Amino acid sequence: MKNNDWKERLNVVYSTNPDYNYEREDSEEQVSLEASRQKLRVQLDRKNRGGKVVTLVTGFVGTENDLKELGKLLKSKCGVGGSAKDGEIIVQGDFKQKVLELLKKEGYTQTKPVG
């Protein structure tokens, strides 16, 4: 064990017990499901957005990098901004139909419109 590993410890700064093992954050990266097995939901949303409409894609199971990559693809094809975090992709504007078509074209066959 390194001597200066205090940044990696969780919930304990110091222990006088010589046999104490510090809890560490295990970065278990989630494995992305293949595109045909993803069950994505596409809906329009305007809650907590100042009345602006956004297209919300939820239900993504996988790594954060894959989510951001898919979000980047959707945003660039729609020509708008947005974000991809916490398992959901936000595309600014009403692009529900276009996002559905793009996802099916990319192999996300179990994609459904909601609402």
From TrEMBL:
Residues 47-107 form the SUI1 domain. The keyword Transcription does not apply. GO terms for molecular function: mRNA binding; translation initiation factor activity. The keyword Protein biosynthesis applies. Keywords: Initiation factor, Protein biosynthesis, Translation regulation. One of its GO terms (biological process) is formation of translation preinitiation complex. CDD domains: YciH_like. Belongs to the SUI1 family. This is Translation initiation factor 1 (eIF-1/SUI1).
